[in-house]
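Aim 2 progress update. The chain analyzed this quarter is reproduced below.
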Amino acid sequence: MDAISPFALNAVVILTITRDGRTFRTKAKVVDSLNAMGMGLMFTATEPEQVRVLESCLNEGTGGTLVEPDPPAPAVPTFAAPAEIASGADQELRDIVREMIVLLNRKSIVGDGEAMAMMRKISK
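Predicted structure tokens:
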């Protein structure tokens, strides 16, 4: 995101983008920040309907087709502490992969649609 005064690295933000009367809103974290240049944002909590709004806006500009997200998996309760530890390690790996996807997208190695699809997969 272009910005003369970007937010600090690791700042948590709520991103709102409005286009043609539609609004996309999500929580994000600053994963890259360079003064007078801008910042890289990683979506951290995006509601499924918001993903559809974003995909629709992106696809209109590229002539692409809308890809319906997979239905959410049923919640599985965790009861033991080892599962919580594994979950923390799993979340750390997901964060690393998200940062890699953002970087690959910024360098135009991975397109926007591909990046969104990968983000959805690791958010499950």
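The beta strands are 12-19, 22-34, 38-45. The longest strand covers residues 22-34. These observations will guide the mutagenesis experiments scheduled for the next reporting period.
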